[in-house]
């Protein structure tokens, strides 16, 4: 299989400190790849090497099958990069900055201007067009940096914690945009330390911890572990709880703050799934919530990292 990004034994030392260990990334075409790991794991260091802003100590990087950093100029024509620390051009207006970036990428003035307008509206800073970069909030700056990554309609996006400064609504909008960009056929490599966000926007994941890739692959394939711990809420929890307590396949069941936690013998999951809704319907009880207690990706993380949380 041809990968859009592929690294072989990618390794980085800062002085004597080994920060990245033999990373073998494989990013297939058309996926949204979540590069997930805690603070200090090595995400930014890896991304800087992928975009040739930092030299590997050793190892190979191929993007579109071409060698990085040797083929940097050619590769970066088709890459939109959103760095962790955005934009240095503090005295430019957003509009001028985006036109300038468009010109740098080889667009004629008219085309660059038209694209700048479209992108400002797309990322939600159209009304701020004539504000200087230094006058923007960090979330607004992040939106402008996202716009600049989209200049020239690149086929690969490399985004380093693109939602870090966005407000909750901004995050939801951003995730929607990533999903539609992926539908257009782009490959998106995006770092994050927020599990729920990766679950919403990515179909691939690479888990990095202390400079090592711990797991990589399609989220659906990685998360096929039997679930046996559920959160349940109904319009009559007392009755529902009594029903569950009597079932031989229920190992433990208790109520916490309006939510019933039920742990089931996974061999008899089908019985729970068939009998419980039937019982609720017969009693006229409404089911309000039924979901695995931890999300599939969280379970993988607990297994691989040996901890409950990667970040927030
Ligand atoms: N220029 C540098 N010199 C020395 N050490 C560095 C340098 N840059 C990063 N490091 C170290 O490398 C490790 C990985 O840093 P990196 O910025 O890649 O992490 P990250 O996964 O992006 O974290 P975050 O989620 O906080 O952005 C950290 O321990 C950091 O201290
Ligand atoms: Mg980082």
TrEMBL record:
Q: Which PROSITE patterns match?
A: ABC_TRANSPORTER_1, ABC_TRANSPORTER_2
By its UniProt entry, which SUPFAM superfamilies does this protein fall under? P-loop containing nucleoside triphosphate hydrolases
One term of GO molecular function: ATP hydrolysis activity
What domain of life is recorded for the organism? Archaea
Q: Which UniProt keywords apply?
A: ATP-binding, Nucleotide-binding, Transport
User: Which family does the UniProt entry place this protein in?
Assistant: Belongs to the ABC transporter superfamily.
Where is the organism placed in the taxonomic lineage, from the top? Archaea, Methanobacteriati, Methanobacteriota, Thermococci, Thermococcales
Protein's name according to its UniProt entry = ABC transporter ATP-binding protein
Q: Does the keyword Transport apply?
A: yes
Q: CDD domains annotated for this entry?
A: ABC_DR_subfamily_A (cd03230)
